[in-house]
Amino acid sequence: MNIHNIRRFRLTILVCCLLLVIAIVLSLRLGAVNIPFAQLIEELTQRDGIIYDYRLPRLIIAVCIGTNMAIAGAVLQGVTRNPLAAPDVIGITAGGGLATVILILAIPQFTQSMLPFFAFGGSICAGLLVFILAYQKGIKPNRLALCGVAVSSGLQAVITLFIVKYSPSASQALVWLKGSLYARTWDHVELLWPWTVVGTILALLSYRQLNVLLLSEDTILGLGSKINRVRLRLIIISVALAGSAVAAAGNIGFIGLVIPHLARLLVGSDFRLTLPTSALLGAVLVVFADTVGRIVMPPIEIPVGIITSLIGAPYFVYLLLKGRIVGKA
User: Fold this and answer.
1) Among 244, 184, 303, which residue's Cα sits nearest to residue 64?
2) DSSP 8-class letter at 49
3) Does any domain span residue 140?
4) How does it sit in the membrane (predicted)?
């Protein structure tokens, strides 16, 4: 790290924190019913009312999901050395989506409490399948990325098949697949926050290994690094972060794909700087997207996954056109 990058990092973190505070205030105040600032403070102090019971847990979940998906994407791009790697590209979110669709459409007697566990289990199974397919005398980054794309495509096809077969009753599954924070409660917060805290800490502590993985394969082996164990551990961290996010809110796309690129443009490719920047940017994006989804067409809510896609897709195309998506993560 040079002094210039450190200064840019500090300025970026300061701006991101300011944006996150603004996003938090707007998220708590705006919605189907706009809450005055004085009432907001009163309800938070008394731990009662629409702010504390409904909007605050939804806000916390939005911050956790943005953090999880952004860090998971940054780690996967580092492991695969592929700038197009992300949880929603290599099959992790598709696995959670398929498990949820099967539960909703094929098991009518399901209870809402079962959804997060099915989604998390599906994400874990998809990640495990990608790892098994990619493993051949070790893990090669390109093979891992290609196997992830193949698994993701296959799972999406199966999801589409279920949607078509059960189309009259597929509305709830479609909302889940688009990613939504509607009706999220403190129970969902309790489910998600431990994964966010532990996964984020483990990822931040792994920045040295991620920086090493940016080197060539021969250089890594020459350094004596047990590369396959390192990659496996980092993949597990990514799957845990992304899987818990899918379990809490469904498939929210483009965060893990676009946010790490934006972080690298702002602070450079050193993961010591990229990971915390990605976490903050992801949190800001999801909180803003959820707020916009609630206020743009009241009383109808636009799922947060649609808003993030509308924001992320044009920015990703911009990066492609400008040639700023580089081969190294």
Assistant:
1) 244
2) S
3) yes
4) Multi-pass membrane protein
Q: Are 31 and 162 in contact (CB under 8 A)?
A: no
Distance of CA 277 to the CA centre of its chain: 14
* Burial of 19 (C-beta count, 10 Å sphere; 0-12/13-18/19+): middle
What are the structure tokens assigned to 298, written together?
């009241």
The verdict on residue 62 lying in a domain is yes
Cα atoms found within 13 Å of the Cα of residue 328, Cβ hemisphere only: 13
Residue 122: CB atoms within 10 A of its CB come to: 26
232 contacts 239 by C-beta, under 8 angstroms: no
In 3-state terms, the chain is what percent helix, strand and coil (to 5)?
80, 0, 20
Element (H, E) at 171: helix 171-178
Identify the CA nearest to 243 among candidates 91, 78, 129: 91
User: How distant is the alpha carbon of residue 269 from its chain centre?
Assistant: 19
> What pLDDT score was predicted for residue 171?
74
* CATH number of the structural domain spanning residue 111: 1.10.3470.10
Question: 324 falls in which pLDDT band (50, 70, 90)?
Answer: low
Q: Is residue 329, in this structure, part of any structural domain at all?
A: no
Which two tokens mark 86?
């992300």
Cβ neighbours of residue 220 closer than 8 Å, sequence gap 6 or more: 212, 213, 227
In the three-class reduction of DSSP (H, G, I as helix; E, B as strand; rest coil), residue 139 is classed as: strand
- Here the tokens at position 98 are 């398929």
Range of the domain at 81: 3-322
**Element holding 110 (H helix, E strand):** none
**What DSSP string runs through 111-135?**
-GGGHHHHHHHHHHHHHHHHHHHHB
Backbone angles phi, psi at 113, to 5 degrees: -70, -20
**Comparing 222 with 145, which gets the higher pLDDT?**
145
Name the domain count of the chain. 1
Vertex 318: Cα angle to 303 and 16 (nearest 5) = 65
Q: Provide the CB-side half-sphere exposure for 192 (13 A, CA).
A: 31
CA gap 136, 127 in Å, rounded: 16
What predicted TM-score, i.e. pTM, was given to this entire model?
0.90
